[in-house]
Amino acid sequence: ARALLTDPQTSGGLLVACAPEAADEVLAQLRADGFAQAARIGRLEAGAAHIRVS
User: Fold this and answer.
1) What's the CA gap between 17 and 40, in Å, rounded?
2) Overall pTM surpassing 0.85 (yes/no)
3) What is the C-alpha to C-alpha distance for residues 17 and 14, in angstroms, rounded to an integer?
4) What is the pLDDT of residues 19-45, one digit of tens each?
5) Contact of 30 with 16, CB cutoff 8 Å
6) Residue 7's beta-bridge partner residues?
7) CA 16, CA 26: separation in Å to the nearest integer?
8) What is the dihedral of CA 26, 31, 35, 39, to 10 degrees?
């Protein structure tokens, strides 16, 4: 399962997208599966495209 979450070109992690109401459950499952640093890093919103890093 871990191999499915990494990019073989860079060995870096990939983003996981889910419905906002499922985010807590998805994070809990990822952490339970050994991905202790899984984190919510953003959200998609309607409107003009922009990226904000916090």
Assistant:
1) 10
2) no
3) 10
4) 999 999 999 999 999 989 999 988 888
5) yes
6) 12
7) 9
8) 60
